[in-house]
Every structure is written in structure tokens, then in C-alpha cells.
Amino acid sequence: xxxxxxxxxRIKGVHDTQKITNAMYxxxxxxxRKARRYAEQTKPYFDLMRREMRRMFAVNRDLKSRYYDADIxxxxxxxxxxxxxxxxDKGLAGSYNQNVIKAALxxxxxxxEYKFYIVGDYGWRFFRSRGYNVExxxxxxxxxxxxxxxxxxxVEMLNAFDRLEFDxxxxxxxxxxxxxxxxxxxxxxxxPFDIDDFVPEGDEHASSASAVFEYEPDVETVLANVVxxxxxxxxxxxxxxxxxxxxxxxxxxMDAANDNANDLLAxxxxxxNHLRQNAITQEITEISSGARSLKKKKHQ
Length: 300
Hints:
This protein is of the alpha/beta class. It is built from six helices and five strands. Helix content is 61%, strand content 12%.
């Protein structure tokens, strides 16, 4: 059985750990609010761009472009796929990183050929250490997402797509729900575009609104010019969603750690009080026995 000194030292250690988890909770909360504020400042621009692309595809369903293919059957396996995987730089965020990695591996299993493009040190170490096909010259830390960071990622992958190195580009990230849920790891096809991602079936309003527009010199040229900015916006959105999800998952993990620490402290304090009470009782018993013994000797 542990001594009272050992228990006191353990209680002190738990209190010190609680200070760290509380600090990490507050830091993650601040980072998440900051990232969401940046995303809200740029959201109107990219929402407008998406609406214009939606208008474009609504009246040009037979568009012929390398960037557009509505006939790809996602249920079929195969193809040369580039997979952008967005993880965190560190752990201590529950199952956040593992969920993304599982989704990325499931997507790679459906490919004839694949190459991972990794954002986040955690994912980089995981895939590199296990021998997966990773783009060696592509390495980005998951710091606070910026448009410059999203631009560098999107341009590099778009250039590889233009060089015909891949048939499709996917992104695997965590969709932030905005509440205290951890968010789900999802995968989306970035290229080629799918009309279903822009024009829901039966959306007559989009078709009628698009009929008044003409594209010069042609739709294919316009699409080739907007695909870059669109990918930058989508990548930025995925980075921010993942970053917010990571901070949210870390907040939940630290909150759970605080609850566990409180339960452990309650148990240790109870054990400490029992040992202390037993020690006091034993001392009183020894003093009483000694007093009785002295009194007995005095009478003798």
C-alpha cells in the first residue's frame, strides 16, 4: 500500500497535469475562433465563384473539358489518383488523425495507382514510416491556414493534373460541424468536376438563371481560367474545416482529461484521508497503550 507521502506526490502530479490540459483547452479554443473568423472573411468571394460555376454547368451539361467529367462512376475501382490528406501536426486530439488516415487508406485501396499529398506532420510521419507512396517534395505543416498556403497546395496539384500524372484528385479532410461534435472524415473529388456537386438534380432555378449568360470566347476557356481560383478556395475551406475540427477534437480530449483527473483526485484524496485517519488512530492507540502501561507499572 502506498504511503501518505507517495499519495500526496501523486495528487500534486495530477494537479500539475490539470494545469497543462486546461491551458491546452484554452489555446485550442482561441485558435479555433481565429480560424473561423478568417474563413468567414473570405467565404463570400468563394461562394460567389461557386454560384457562377453552378450557373456555367447548369446550361452546359455536355461541356467537353479535361476539368469536367460527369460520367465517372465513383463506385468503380481503378484509376490514377492523387489524394490530398489533411491531418494535424500533433496528437492529443482523440481519434481525429486516425479517422482521416483510415478514410485516406480506404480511398487508396480503390486506386490502381495513387500518390499521397500530405498536410500535417502527423500524417507525414505515419505514411512515410509505413512505406506508402508519398510525394516527397510536398510537405506542409498544419499551422493556421492561410490563402497563400492553400494557393501553394492547389497550384502544385493542379500542375500535376495538367501534366497528365493523375486521372483524379481527391481531398480527405474533417468536416467541421460547428458544434462540440468531433466532425466526420470525408473525401471529395476535386478534379475532374462532377455536375452533381454544383447543380442538384431538378434545380430549375439554376438553369433558368443561367440562360441569359454567354461565355467568351467559350465555356471551356472560361472554365480553364477559373479552375485554379476555385481549387484554391476549396483547399482553403478544407484546411480551415480540418484545423477547426482538430482544435475542437483537442478541446474535447482535454475536457475529458480534466474530468478523468477530477475523478482520480477524488479517489486519491479519499485514499489519502483513509490512510491519514488510520495513522492518527494508530498513534492514539499507541499513546493510550503506553499511558496504560505506565499507569500499571506505577501501581505495581
